[in-house]
Amino acid sequence: MKKSISTLLGLMLFLLFSINISAQSADEELDQVELMKQFIGTWKCEIGNDTILYQKVEPLGKGAHISWEWRGSGNVYNTAKSIMGFSDQGEIIMSHLWQNGTMSSDIGRFVSKNKMMMERFPPGSIHANALWELTFTDTDHTWVLYGRGSEITWDALWTNEWKMLKVKD
Questions:
Q1: CA–CA distance from 104 to each of 1, 42, 55, 94, 143 (Å)?
Q2: Could you tell me the end-to-end alpha-carbon distance of the chain, in angstroms, rounded to an integer?
Q3: SS3 of residue 16 by DSSP
Q4: In whole angstroms, what is the distance from residue 86 CA to residue 100 CA?
Q5: What does the pLDDT look like over 23-35, one tens digit per residue?
Q6: Would you report the helix, strand and coil content of the chain in percent, each value rounded to 5?
Q7: What angle do CA 105, 48, 102 make, to 5 degrees?
Q8: Rounded average pLDDT over 70-93
């Protein structure tokens, strides 16, 4: 009889703790569609002494269309077009068409309300060669790019950082 009561009590405690654990994980899922709206607007970033990068992000359904323009000494010297959308798994995919005709993709997701992590996939590769870390505020977003190290490790061979300031909504 004591063994039955102990077993029953142990089972009840197990169920009590199991219910609490499983209930929390569903509530913490981030709304990737809503968070992606932080990209919307026109942004600029000063690169070096005389180069400015402009990024114009316009909504397109649940995704976005992006125009990039690099200007130096008052002239446009590079452009790119991108689209952002979602995979069936809820990942954000940003595909880029560069001025020279090549394409690359970034795939990732928001890991918090103001931080996004994405892997960069160069043209024709199934292996990421860089990792993006994007941090958002109301007035800017900072892009940090970590170049992948040798032997397919994430030891950073190089790092670049851009602070995109909001020009207008």
A1: 68, 22, 17, 8, 17
A2: 71
A3: helix
A4: 26
A5: 333 446 899 999 9
A6: 20, 50, 25
A7: 25
A8: 93
The Cα-based distances of 151 to 57, 60, 102 in angstroms read 35, 39, 25
d(CA 100, CA 78): 9
**65 CA to centre of own chain:** 15
Task: Note the helical H segments in 32-128.
Answer: 32-36
Query: Quick check: 120 and 104 in contact, CB under 8 A?
Result: yes
pTM value surpassing 0.85: no
Alpha-carbon span 169 to 166, nearest angstrom: 8
Q: Of 98, 28, 29, 31, give the one whose Cα is nearest residue 62.
A: 31
- What percentage of the chain reaches a pLDDT higher than 90? 56
Q: What percent of the chain has pLDDT over 70?
A: 78
For residues 113, 119, 133, 55, the Cα torsion angle rounded to the nearest 10 degrees is: -90
Element holding 71 (H helix, E strand): strand 63-72
